[in-house]
Amino acid sequence: MFHPQYDADVLITGGGPSGSMCAYYLAKAGKKVILIDSENFPRDKICGDFVSPVGLKELMNIGISELAEFKKTNVITGATLYLDGEPLITKDLPYIEGLPNYGRVIPRILLDNWLIEEARKQGVNVITSCQLRDFHVFNNDVSVSCIHKKEIINFSVKILIGADGSNSFVARMMNGNRPNPKNEIIAVRAYFEDVNCICEKAELFFSSQSFPGYSWFFPTGNKTANVGIGMTSEIFPKNKIHLKELLMNMIEKDISLKARIGNGKLSNKIGAWPLSVYNPNAAIVSNRVLLIGDAAGLINSLNGEGIQYALQSGRWAAESVIKCLTINDLTKESLKIFDTKVRYEIGYGMSVSNIILQFTRNRNLNPIYMGLLKTIVAKAKQDEQYSNIAGGVLSGMLPTDKVLTTSFLGKTIFKSITLGFSSFYKTFKTIYKSVIFICITLFNSLTQIYAYWDWTKGLVKSFILAIRLEKFKRKNNDIILKLSVKKQNLKPLIKEYK
User: How far apart are CA 113 and CA 463, in angstroms?
Assistant: First the structure.
């Protein structure tokens, strides 16, 4: 059997949070790692910049929280939600055991550079200005071709890990196509200076105009903030306003967001970026190839959060690859232990987020969604446990499936009834509005029949996938527990997984 001369055990393309985290843990375990990125560091990435408590815990585990510059970044202890310019609720982030009860706003120009430097300290060979050109998978290696400073360089490695973002070249080569537009959300972001901040509060702005989606105001300091808006790309009826224009329109017309911006000025141009949300039907492992972070679609479609899943998936991938390297088996079947880990830890929760996303694609039903938001907020003001679940899900501290508990759903339904039927006048008003809304909805369904049919099919598919992932999680609980044992023999587990 031919055994090639390897340049490294692993080549990772993409120096963002997932790629650097994966490289860090692989190198720490004694593996030879090459990490390439098309840009030089430090460099910016368009992002909301909020690092959730889950993400902070990952950073703490590798010592980044001890950096002096890290300690200077802005701490977020709570959030305020607005609807059409009116404040709905202000709450501190909930306390979840094992997690800090705060987040931080860390510009990616800082975060990504810290992570890649930590990887470099572990011995990772970091090559910047180096872009993946092509790769070919063979029985014993992956042949990787790159362009580095206008010259072609080639590497032979045991495994290739794609951490090259939502528009991943590795993912396109593996799956044979680009992500489905129905699995994408679009966001725009800008930095403002000389704004009116409440430094410790993140602020989220919902409106009938921008829904489904929301605007955010994340303070990065005393007078500076990351301001943006995100929305799913496939909606009906179409929103005719371009997303950049919609953000500036929100800043101009939303009284609360306008008050925050005040006389502030843009400190850079408005940037846009697509995000591929989780699609359980898309492959994230193949023979000697694996996807992590945004490249694997590990974006929560409910809130657009990606940093915490990038950091987690980077670590999970490293742990899985180390096990596979130990038994010298990097086949798709062996690497499925990573796919199993992802599906078990976050797959079901993200599939529930996708159901919510699919519902909200139908903008004809915006009055229902706005009413539901008001109901959840009203109950959260009264019930601390309920508030902790709602806040935990929105901040990414808890998986979205936590809202499907009998207690949470029951409280939500009961609260919506009491809000709508608390008096004779409210009962009459609720019934009158409901009849009008049903008539309008029926008319819309007839005039937009194809859009409604496509939307309904999407809902059915989303529900089916969620049910499958819930069953998958229950079925594979024992395997995940066994995989958590470092010295566990992997081969019988691979057979068990099959």
Answer: 40
Lookup: tokens for 304: 């657009």
Inter-residue contact 291 to 248 (CB < 8 Å):
no
Class for the domain spanning 181-276? alpha beta
DSSP strand pairing (130-137 vs 86-92)? unpaired
Query: Which of helix, strand or coil describes residue 494?
Result: helix
314: three-class secondary structure by DSSP = helix
- CATH classification (class only), 8-73+104-179+279-346: alpha beta
What are the angstrom distances between the C-alpha of 243 and each of 214, 232, 239, 248, 366?
A: 11, 11, 9, 9, 18
Residue 1: predicted pLDDT: 46
* Amino acid, single-letter form, for residue 269: K
Beta-bridged to residue 233, according to DSSP, are: none
What is the reported pLDDT for 196? 93
Task: Determine contact, residues 19/13, Cβ cutoff 8 Å.
Answer: yes
Q: What pLDDT is attached to residue 482? A: 60
pLDDT for res 474:
83
Q: Which residues contact 437 (CB under 8 A, 6 or more apart)?
A: 367, 368
Domain with CATH 3.50.50.60 in the chain: 8-73+104-179+279-346
Asked whether the beta carbons of 175 and 282 are under 8 A apart, the reply is yes
pLDDT in tens, 156-199: 999 999 999 988 999 999 888 777 777 888 899 999 999 999 99
**CA-CA distance, 376 to 387, in Å (whole number)?**
8
Distances (CA, A) of 388 to 104, 202, 204, 210, 302: 19, 16, 17, 26, 17
Nearest to 294 by CA among 308, 446, 353, 267: 308
Query: What is the C-alpha to C-alpha distance for residues 16 and 70, in angstroms, rounded to an integer?
Result: 17
Structure confidence at residue 407 (pLDDT): 93
Instruction: Name the segment(s) of the chain with CATH classification 3.30.9.10.
Output: 181-276
Identify the bridge partners of residue 132 per DSSP, sorted by sequence position: 146
Which tokens go with 421? 């039927």
What's the longest Cα–Cα distance across the chain?
A: 83
Q: In whole angstroms, what is the distance from residue 420 CA to residue 119 CA? A: 55
Residues of the chain with pLDDT under 50: 1, 496-498
Which residue reads 């950096």 in tokens?
67
Nearest to 128 by CA among 143, 109, 108, 148: 148
d(CA 21, CA 9): 16
SS3 of residue 285 by DSSP? strand
Q: Which residues contact 276 (CB under 8 A, 6 or more apart)?
A: 166, 179, 183, 184, 294, 297, 299
In this structure, the number of other CB atoms found within 10 A of the CB of residue 312 comes to 24
Rounded to 5 degrees, φ, ψ at 101 are: -100, 45
